[in-house]
Structure prediction request, 269 residues.
Amino acid sequence: MKNRIEKIFERCSDEKRAALILFTSCGYPDMENSERIIQGAIDSGADIIELGVPFSDPMADGMIIQKASQIALQNATSLKKVLAMAERLRKRNPDTGFILFSYFNVLLSYGLEALTDELTKIGVDGILSVDLPYEEKAELEPLCKQKGLHLIPLVSPATSPERARLITGQASGFVYYIAVRGITGVRTELPQELIARLEEMGRISPIPVVAGFGIGDPETARKIAKHARGIVVGSAGMSLLVQEKPLEERISDFKHFVKSLSGSLSPDA
Prediction:
């Protein structure tokens, strides 16, 4: 029996398009509106949501996501509150993919067994721990496999083909290919070798390869989607939400942006 993430990629394949994966900073600008924003992303065409848990030292994140995380933490956002929100979102969106996106310290503080139990009960599909290297996944991976959760691996431009085979060989769900070296954030240009690397990863990986970091507009998304099974957008969407505008305008801008991304991935785009 296929799991939800497999069904999403199968559906996207049938529709001849890449999956749209949206990163959201949970708790920004507050928990109630964060939930509205995530629901708006789903209603606007997002296939999978990365539920970003705010962390005090987000070393992989650029200024936009750092700012959102700091405000979320000031508003007392916690992993417990994020999980409660995820449960409500799952009840309303049975077919959407949800991936908990966090730094490992946050997961460890909650308790890995308690967390994986809770995620399974809620119906979250997997975990992406951005600072958990392949060599140190043994504490979390068996719990994920036992409970039917995907532990999403990361591969970067610095990863050799041999190591990419190792990382993806036993993985499930999808592999996240980091399109650029450095931290998150919108880029005006992506590396020239990106397409070749994505095609190489497509040959290496037994699971779908998605690309993220630096994708900032529908045109870039369209180009990359021809060479990946999914695209991940985070900072570009969050940048609209941290603007100095009334909140309703910001949310409206965000939803229109997600719709434009979704439209750019259709076969007729």
Q: What stands out?
A: The chain has twelve helices and nine strands. Residues 18-263 form a domain with the TIM Barrel fold (CATH 3.20.20.70). Confidence is low (pLDDT under 50) at residues 182-188.
